[in-house]
Amino acid sequence: MKKALMSSSIVFMILASGVMPIWAGEVSISWYGQACFLIVTSQGTEIIIDPVAMGGYAVPENITPDIVTVSHEHGDHNAVGSVSGDPVVIRGLTSEAKAYAEIDQQIKDVKMYTVATYHDKEQGSQRGLNAVFVFEFDGIRLAHLGDLGHLLSEEQIDEIGEIDILMIPVGGVATIDSEEADQVVAQLNPKMIVFPMHYRTDVVTFMPDTAEDFVAEKEHVQRIDGNRYVLDLDQPPETLEYVVLNYK
Ligand SMILES: [Zn+2]
To answer: For position 118, which CATH number holds?
Structure first.
């Protein structure tokens, strides 16, 4: 009986995971450019973070996520209409982006909350507000910093809390640059993985810093030939790894 239950739940997860089969004990993380990621938890719950639709960057049409989150209402982060299916959309800012929505909720196996930050170094007066999303699932805490424009305050560091996986902008101009990103990594001290995002590529050229500018001097760097990283929950990285994904 127990065996039958187990195999049926594996079949369910294959059906529910969309693009690729996901086995229990794995978390899949794909990058689609700028700050847009797909996370698939071990339970098959799919989250699209900061959906993008610009140049060669796009969320694939065959992805039908359960949840879409939006850190702030700029066009390279809130292309919610380009996402297929009928996801729950969670916006970090209120309408017209004038205030923080102060998210704290659970959907399926994913808990999430937001931390109030700014898109610039001047309290948002230049580029507006930005919501950091912290996700909890599979015993992991993941922070996505959106378009963070400044180093963190002590209060923000406390609110974000202990982090295993960090998604951090490194491109500069619109956000913190690669050197400031090093300082934010030191502030948050993530345990497993840092994914750089929102940097110069062949698609988006207005930002000065590339992913290589950020990881060049780092010790543990994994450059993935493709856009997907799979985390084995039984064997997470023991020392901090920097993982650079392609956008396709
Ligand atoms: Zn942006």
So the answer is: 3.60.15.10
